[in-house]
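Hi R.,

Here are the chain sequences for the assembly we discussed:
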Amino acid sequence: MMDMIQTEKLIFEYEKRDEDGNVIGTSRAIDGVDIDVKEGQFIAVLGHNGSGKSTFAKHLNAILVPTDGTVWVDGRDTKEPEELWNVRQSAGMVFQNPDNQIIGTVVEEDVGFGPENLGVPTDEIWQRVEESLKAVGMLSYRHHSPNKLSGGQKQRVAIAGVVAMEPKCIVLDEPTAMLDPVGRKEVLKTVQRLREEKKVTVILITHYMEEVVDADKIYVMDHGKVVMEGTPREIFSQVEKLKQYRLDVPQVTILADELKKRGLGIPAGILRKEELAECISSQYTHGNRTGMDG
Amino acid sequence: MSIRLEHLNYIYSPNTAYEKHALKDICLEIPAGEFVGVIGHTGSGKSTLIQHFNGLIKATDGKLFYNGENIYEPGYNMKNLRNEVGLVFQYPEHQLFEIDVMSDVCFGPKNQGLSPEECEKRALEALRLVGLKEKYYKASPFELSGGQKRRAAIAGVLAMRPKVLVLDEPTAGLDPKGRDDILDQVAYLHKQTGMTVILVSHSMEDIARYADRIIVMNHGEVMYNDRPKNVFAHYRELEKAGLAAPQVTYIMHDLKERGIPVDIGVTTVSEAADEIMRALGTEISENEDMTGDGMLDADAMGGDTSDAGATGDGTPDADAAAVGRASGADTADSKNMEKKR
Amino acid sequence: MIRDITIGQYYPAKSILHRLDPRVKLVSTLLYLVSLFLFRSIAGYLVATLFLIGIIRLSRVPFGYIVKGLKPVIMLLMITVVFNLFLKKEGEVLVHIWRLSITTAGLRNAVYMAIRLIYLIIGSSLMTFTTTPNELTDGIEALLNPLNKIRVPVHEVAMMMSIALRFIPILLEETDKIMKAQQARGADFESGNIIQRAKAMIPILVPLFVSAFRRANDLAMAMEARCYRGGEGRTKMKPLRYKGRDRAAYVMIAVYVAAVVAIGRYVPLKIWIF
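And here is the predicted structure of the full complex:
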């Protein structure tokens, strides 16, 4: 598999300025991050607010460039000015606030905005717009005003806007943070569909753990560093550590952990409700049988 | 400090293309000192509902009684109502405007016509209540982090010493730590001052943890108005209304369907753990006593027999019957209300 | 309510007017506005009114919706009417109040000025009702393109306009929210003298500016992330190409202007109602 995104000792520092604009120091937002994403993977980056995960996301689209270290997107160094637009085309980005990333006043015009910027011929723009709106299930809203859509729908339009640029990789920076449960579900389903149908690489940045159960790999960030990495099962089995990093551990995981602590034979890293219920009920039937035998 | 709504209706932009019946015949009572959770999907009318509580929105028709007085009577002191019912909007940090946190928190008390000393005293008290560190009091509100800004904004409402505190999704956009901090702070306030708290949230888990009672809004109507465990028993209906019960509820129902005698009414993780251990534990040691225990527990649940009935067997039919009975109880309730009037 | 402002907003519908090329609509609107000042007789008003009614019918925008758009300019309208009412000294005096008098000429002027203003507003808002801001900016961009040669950043200006229009409803809603939030903290916007009222706006304006800047920042980032780099090398999803109906529309507006000028000037229908 090819490397879609690779970072090497990525460091990013903000300059702190006093009231006159003089630099009075620097603050390190990202501190030596090494991440490796293969084509077609679903990667999640978890972290609480201020852990550096959004700053990291902005490096994948060359909105920010590293102070030190390197970011390669599809083999291109994001620091090279002549690669800038190629990088942005290969790694599309969806942001947190649905209102502040929709440029068009009609859904289809917004989706066409990216291809227009890329200089795609008119006929092809129409084709791409139609296809992308179909891919996110918003085709029937193509003539609507974005202002009248729900949060989840707006986010899906934003995703379509990125899909229309035909990126190899989509970076979603807390796309669900401002949505209600229905909207969150909508967006996650859309992302899943894109992975299945378009085989795009997805990097999901979030603090909701239940959104990353299906990820191929999870990175947990804290204070600008990657502090945990592994499969969801490996990550979810360390409940205490996750809580310490201020993450939103799903109730299932906490309950499984709690039961395990009380001596039930439950395997580490339970991800889904059904899984836990299965586990407990097997204990029950087992216990029941021994009870009857005795 | 009770709030009572009688047949309240609200219509947005009446007689236009955008006309929307946002609240339909709402009858509610929120007694003083209660911690009430309000949930509903976006557009269910919950935000519109709470803006009625301090008179920011005037109902199209119906009555709203605060302490037994109809606030729509001519001559009613609206200013006083706003002093007593504090409303914290969604993303309240977006309302910060003063040069420092302290002056911003003083804005409310100042509008109440208090002396500068008294304003400052109340502001200090409010800032302490929300747990904002003293070094930030003189900082510009725009320099604070997201969580700190939110605390400052909530302090801005608390400084008015409201008797009823209404919070519209106070934790939206915060991370888990920030969320727990704020909700714990609110719960503490509720306990300390006995103030009525009305908490609007999307998160069933949060509401389950704190609220005595849950009001579920759906398409402008009150869908449920009951204790958390009774509301969550309708988890299938909640899903249809674009909501979800806490994960624990699903697990407990799943276990029940698999034939494990657990109480499906538990709503928090620690309760669930206790309950599962109990079910498994009694099972292993004394098989015969199990049924007795189960019955006892059902009684202990406190009169909500409809639920206990459903726990008897986990088939969908029985659940549906329980729902039917529960909604029957709802109508009985509303009839009672009508009688009172 | 502040959210009720409909002026400058797009009204989605499927009408021939919605489908017209924005350049046609821009030019026609301009011509219509100018035409309102080219005649002085009732016949002229009749033609202009008939034309406007026809256009409203064609646009499929509900009349009530259009009228609502007039609400925010009522103050302006009143001032104009009052000025015209009292300042014209010719003609027969109808009413005399203190040192001011209303004359027939004044009354006539006031009524005509009000009609002109209303038609002007309706005419131009019909354009925004039937043209998406993007089309509008495309149209302006195309019409002003010659200015590019003298280094006027036409595309950028057009883009700015388009974004402004997209964010007007969002910022209006935000204003509404901030107002309510401050009212909940006891703010009072309705009483006091003019200075007190102006001061009372600070708690609204500061958060509004902060929010607008935050949104602008976010939006700029989102635009860059989607490879926006100015007008150069950009293709169009909806390039402007004149079609048969656009040519027909040009002919129609030309006929209208000719008619209104001719009838307004030369048809002796100068019967005043009062």
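Residues 327 and 333 of chain B are 9 Å apart (CA to CA). Residues 283-341 of chain B have pLDDT under 50 and may be disordered.

Let me know if anything looks off.

Best,
T.
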